[in-house]
Write a structure and sequence with these properties.
By secondary structure, the protein is α/β, with parallel strands linked by helices. The chain has four helices and five strands.
Length: 119
């Protein structure tokens, strides 16, 4: 269950303390995004992703510098790093450029895979 509006109204800042509980409880598709303030691509993502028409219910931002446990569990090696979670199930990392068309294709491909448990 996703939305394709002109912008994504629901955004959350997640931490090591609340990410698992919230991602397991939230219905619909969440785009989990690891960023860092010192990363130019991350700043661009924070500015542009909320206005993209993506098939997700919410954007979930994680500050990689302050979330070591999540960074390790999700095996984040580059920033920004994007992952898809739907209805508490993990659908993997997205490997695409940060354009609406490429992200929509990557999200669709991820959701076509078999889900796994959250890392």
């Amino acid at each position: 269950m996703g939305i394709t509006a002109s912008s994504i109204a629901c955004q959350s800042e997640l931490t090591d303390f609340d990410a698992d509980r919230l991602l397991l409880d939230w219905p619909g598709t969440s785009l989990l995004i690891f960023t860092s303030i010192g990363c130019a691509s991350c700043r661009w993502a924070r500015q542009m992703l909320p206005d993209m028409a993506l098939p997700v219910a919410r954007l979930c931002w994680i500050d990689a510098a302050n979330s070591g446990g999540l960074v390790e569990r999700y095996e984040v090696f580059h920033l920004p790093a994007l992952f898809v979670v739907r209805d508490g199930q993990f659908f993997g990392a997205l490997h695409s450029r940060l354009s609406t068309a490429e992200l929509n294709a990557a999200i669709g491909a991820a959701l076509a895979n078999s889900p796994e448990e959250l890392p």
